Amino acid sequence: STELPDLVVVGSGFFGLTVAERCAADLGLKVLVLERRHHLGGNAYSEFEPETGIEVHKYGTHLFHTSNERVWEYVNRFTDFTNYQHRVFGKYQGQVYSLPMNLALINSFFGKSHTPDEARALIAEQSSEIDTKDATNLEEKAISLIGRPLYEAFIKGYTAKQWQTDPTELSADIITRLPVRYNFDNRYFNDKYEGLPVDGYTAWLERMADHPNIEVRLNTDFLSADGVADEFKGKVPIVYTGPVDEYFDNSEGRLSWRTVDLRTEILDVDDYQGTGVVNANDADVPFTRELEFKHLHPERAASYTPGRTVVVREFSRFAEEGDEPYYPINTAEDRAKLLKYRDLAAKEPMVLFGGRLGTYKYLDMHMAIAAALSMYDNKLRPHFADGAELKSGGVDGE
Ligand code: FAD
Ligand code: UDP
Q1: Is the peptide bond before 237 cis (omega within 30 degrees of 0)?
Q2: pLDDT tens for residues 301-345?
Q3: Which positions fall inside the UDP-galactopyranose mutase C-terminal domain (predicted)?
Q4: Which of 175, 201, 204, 337 shows the smallest number of beta carbons within 10 Å?
């Protein structure tokens, strides 16, 4: 159409949809959401696998958790949540251990029962070989926190596979802490609220976009050569949640990302591994973890095809051009480039940059939603409701 919307949102992930929903529902603005994929929802998108009835998260398992009251109230407007609590196990040399590191893991790994104080003393002794403040790389830092035996079993191989870099060459500040719990608590997340959307992620994401003032245009790349951007740039405010380097045509160089290849198999067994996520901690197993999606929704058991299950294996590698960017690598070089992109972003009239790609930050879903709500409060609402100047001010989501 030739009529301009009030706001263009590039990207239909949680960041973009939260901005669109607030501007449409709260301010009555006409919002056009442009999405280059064939579906909305960004990386949280999921599909029900038709043969088995199992919901598969297409871009890796997504577990929702938050302690942010405002985010929890907001997300509950669009979906109910199950009472799922995430737990992760790790396989190493033919044994299965309970992660994160806790008394169950310590007892089975060292083959002996320890009281909490005995376990604490054991780890203190094993980690005494390096002082944390002298650690110069990830390996030394990890050993200084948990000791060499646990590091070599559970961190070394997994980290090398995930980063394709020897842990002695990774920066010590990738791990600020490695939690060891001296009790049997093996919940993965510490947040106040946790659960999975009762009827799936896609239903949740679609309800956010389900407003008469919101139009979602799929298969539309804002940066495509046929000039989609020119229709809108400088004419209406734009919230851009795609990769910040791509927006500027990679003028300062590409930011580096890791991607994950997800290989899916439908197996003729009812239950493959008895739980949702099992990490592969051995260095010589090529994947980092195995996901069995039916276990995320035990309450749906009656709707699953008996005797079948969906298993996804994750293979991590550096992202090349055209790969999905998943985790920012964040080398010193990346950080220098990012500063230059932030300067460019701050000067870009009528464009706000947000979300995990727009800010080059790993954001959990609740963080992306919280950041979008604060962009709405601090920039969009003051502009549209009170006529305040739209200050690009670089990136949001800090
Ligand atoms: P995205 O969801 O990436 O959405 C950005 C959208 O912009 C995409 O749909 C993309 O196609 C679109 N786009 C980009 N460029 C253009 C363009 N030029 N034109 C049009 N459209 C464009 N979070 C959790 O809370 N719990 C988890 O367990 C969890 N697990 C994760 C596992 C993996 C493997 C990954 C990668 C992420 C995980 N996350 C998890 C994080 C979660 O995916 C993010 O919080 C969420 O995706 C952020 O939303 P966003 O809108 O910023 O970005
Ligand atoms: N990690 C590890 N062994 C494990 C789990 C995690 O060494 O069994 C380390 C690894 O360095 C990894 C980091 O912790 O990069 C974060 O873990 P992960 O990426 O699995 O977290 P998630 O993707 O679940 O947020």
Answers
A1: no
A2: 999 999 999 999 999 999 999 999 999 988 889 999 999 999 999
A3: 153-362
A4: 175
Best CATH choice for the domain 7-82+194-255+330-386 from the list 3.30.70.890, 3.40.50.720, 2.40.160.60, 1.20.1080.10: 3.40.50.720
In this prediction the ipTM stands at 0.97
Atom of ligand 2 nearest to the CA of 163: 15
pLDDT digits (tens, 9 = 90+) for 54-100: 999 999 999 999 999 999 999 999 999 999 999 999 999 999 999 99
Q: What is the 3-state secondary structure (H, E, C) of the chain?
A: CCCCCCEEEECCCHHHHHHHHHHHHHHCCCEEEECCCCCCCHHHCEEEECCCCEEEECCCCCCEEECCHHHHHHHCCCCCECCCCCCEEEEECCEEEECCCCHHHHHHHHCCCCCHHHHHHHHHHHHHHCCHHHCCCHHHHHHHHHCHHHHHHHHHHHHHHHHCCCHHHCCHHHCCCCCCCCCCCCCCCCCCEEECECCCHHHHHHHHHCCCCEEEECCCCCCCCCCHHHHHCCCCCEEECCCHHHHCCCCCCCCCEEEEEEEEEEECCCCCCCCCEEEECCCCCCCCEEEEHHHHCHHHHHHCCCCCEEEEEEEEEECCCCCCCCEECCCHHHHHHHHHHHHHHHHCCCEEECHHHHHCCCCCHHHHHHHHHHHHHHHHHHHHHHCCCCCCCCECCC
363 lines ligand 1 (CB under 6 A): yes
pLDDT of amino acid 394? 47
106 lines ligand 1 (CB under 6 A): no
Mutate to test the pocket of ligand 1, among 8, 37, 62 (most ligand atoms within 8 A of CB): 62
Instruction: Let me know if the fold of 7-82+194-255+330-386 is the same as that of 101-174.
Output: no
Class of domain 101-174: mainly alpha
Low-confidence ranges of the chain (pLDDT < 50): 394-398
What is the reported pTM?
Answer: 0.96
Position in ligand 1 atom list of the atom nearest CA 246: 18
108 CA distance to ligand 1 centroid (A)?
37
